Amino acid sequence: MKVTAIIPSELIAEAMELSNAEAITETLKIALHTYIRSQKIKELGNMILSEPLEFKYIAQELHEMNRK
């Protein structure tokens, strides 16, 4: 997809430096992938907070089961 956007050059320069990308397109792809990944992790964290994980066995029971 081709997009036209007005982005401050300082922001692009810093993103390019941090991402070690050589081109603006590559920089933007990295930035978008990173943003999407962080949002998905945040969503997962919120899901876990609202509905905590429940463990069926205690550590000792798992240890014994693994030894069999």
Task: Tell me how many strands there are.
Answer: 0
Rg, nearest Å: 21 Å
List segments where confidence is low: pLDDT < 50 over at least 5 consecutive residues: none
Strand content: under 5%
Structure, described:
With 68 residues, the chain is mainly alpha-helical. It has one domain (9-67). The chain contains three helices and no strands. The protein has helices spanning 9-19, 24-50, 59-67. Helix 1 (9-19) packs across helix 2 (24-50). The radius of gyration is 21 Å and the shape is elongated. The chain starts with 8 loop residues before the first helix and ends with a helix. The mean pLDDT is 93.
List keywords for this structure.
68 residues; mainly alpha; 3 helices; 69% helix; elongated
